[in-house]
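OP here, attaching both records as promised.
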Amino acid sequence: MITNDAYPMVRALHRAGEWAAALDLLGDADPELRAQILVDWHFWSVGDHDAAEAAIAALDPASVRARYLSAALAYARVLFNRGARPDDPQVIESGFRAALDDPALSGWANFKLGIFADNVMHDPATALAHFEAAHKLCEGDPMLESYVVRHLGGHLLDAGRRDEAIDLLRRSLHLRAALGARPQVGAAAATLAGELPEGPERDTLRQTAALVGTDLNVPFLR
C-alpha cells in the first residue's frame, strides 16, 4: 500500500512523463489517479488505450471524474485519429460539460471544451470564450495556466498581436519547466520555436522538443 508520503513522488514522476514508474509506485491505491495517469500516457506517448479505458471503467461510471476522463480519452482518439468512434464528439462534449460545475475541474473543463472547439469543431470564437473562462480559474494551478496561456497565445497570433502572443508562449514554457512537466515542456518548446526567427534560441528549443520526443516516445515531438 502506498503511503501518503509517496504521493508527491507519484505526481512528480507523472509530470516528468515517467508514467510506468508512477503507476508502479502507485499500485492499486488510488484508482482515480491511476486512470488519470493512464489517460495522460495514452495522449502523450500512445500508451495502452485499453488499459486506460479499463481503469476508467473501474470508477463509478456516473461520476464527474469518470465522465471527464472518458472525454479526455475520446479526445485523444479523435485528435490523433487513434480508432475514433462515431459517438466520440458527444462523449467529449458531454463529459467535459459535466465537469464545469465541479470546483476542482471547472477550469480544466473550460480549457478542454476550448481545445475541442478549436481542434475538432473548428469554432475559434467558442474556443476563445472557453479559454478566457478557464484563465479566470487558473489561480493556484500553474499547470492549467500553462495550457491556457499557450492557447490564448495562439489566438493572439491569429489576431496579429504577435509580441503579446510570444510573451504568453514563453510564460507557458517557463511555468512547465518550473513544474518539471517534461512532456509539456517539449510541446511548449516546439510551439515557441515555430514562432521565432532563425537563430540559437529557436535551434535550442527545437533540440529540446526533439529530445523529449525521443526520450519519452512522444510521436508528435519526435
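Record two, same layout:
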Amino acid sequence: MNDLQNPSSRHYELDWLRIIAIVILLFYHVGMAFVSWSWHIKNQETSTLLEDIMVWFHQWRMPLLLFISGAATYFALGKKSTKKYLSDRVKRLLVPLVFGFFVIVPPQIYYEKISLYSSFWDFYPTVYHFIPYPKGSFSWHHLWFIAYLLIFSVIALPLFVFLRKEKSKKLFDLMVKFFSKPGALLTLALPILLSQIILRPFFPEETHDLIHDWAYFTFYFSFFLFGYLLCCDIRLWEIIKEQRTLNILMALLTLIPFYIIWFIDGDWSNTLRITYSILKIFIAWFWVIALVGYGQKYLNFENPILIYSSEATYPFYILHQSVIIAIGYYVIQWQLNLWVKYSIITILTFSFCMGLYHLVIKRFNLTRVLFGMKPLNFLKSKELIKDPKASSLNIALD
C-alpha cells in the first residue's frame, strides 16, 4: 500500500506559510508604489533600498503560494470525488474570478487612468466594452493567480488521480530512495530550469495574460505540481523537514551571486543576463523547499490566530491590491516622507481589508460565495460540529 498521507492529517504549517506569504504580498504590493518599476500608481520619490529587498521576495513569494496550493489539493482530493472536487474548484475559484472582473479590479484601472474620466461612474461602463487591458478596462490584474490556479487544478487532475492509486507505489518508492540523499531535493529545480530554457526565448516577459505567458505559466505550474507530489507520500514530506538545514544553506548561498549581479550598474552582458535568470529559478525553488521544511519544524501548531486568519487570507488576497491602489493614489500626493507614506498605506489597507472581512464578508452567504468561502450552512453541518478544528486546513485550503 502507498504511504499516502491521511487526507484528514493536520498540517498547520501550510496555513501559517500561506498567511506569511499573503502578508509579504501586502508589503510587496504597497512597495510597488515606491520603486522605479512600472505599476498602476507611483510616488514621485522612489527607494532603491526597497527595490533591493523586494527583488528577493519576488523570486519566491508566488512560487511558495503555488506550492502550498498544490499540497492543499492533495488533501482536497482525498475528501471528495473527482466530480465534487471540480465543482468546488469552480465555486472557490471561478466565481471570485468573475466577480473580480466586474467589481474588484475596475478601481485599479480607474485610478491608473483617472485623468481620462470625470468620475468612477463615468469610467465604469468601459469595463463592459470587454476590451482587454491596457487598451481597455477588462482585466483580471492580480487575480491572475486565481485564474492560473483554476487551470492548473483542471489540467493536472488526471495525474493527481493516478498518483493516489496503488500503481504509483513503485514511483514513490524510487522517489523516496533518491530524494533521501542529501541535496537531492534541490535537483527538482532542474526540470523547472529546463522548461524555462525551452520556453523563455519565445515568451520572455511575465505577462499574466495566459496567451503570451507560457514560460511563466509553466514555471508556476511546476511549483503547483511539486507541492502535490511531495505531499502525496508522508516519507517525502518528512525528507523536506529532515533536509531543511542544507536547503536553507543553499538558498542563502545562491543570494551571493544573485546580488553581485543585481548591484552591477550599466548594461548587462548576455552572459550576466542568462546567469541572473538561472539564479532566479534556483532561488525560487531553494527558498520554497527550505521554508516548507522549517515550517514543518516550527509552525505545525494551531492557535486562535491561525483559525481566524486562515479563513481570512483568501478574501484578503482578493481585496488587497485594489485597496492599496485606491488608498495609495491619495496618500502618495501628500507631502510626507516616503516611509511614512508606505506605513500609512500598509496600515490603512490591512485595517480596511480585515474590517470588511470581519464585518461583512464572513457574515453573509452571498459575500462568502463571492469571495470563495464556504457558505455558513456548510460550517454548521454535522461534519464540522464533530470536527470543530476543520476550519483551519480543510476549509481554508481545500
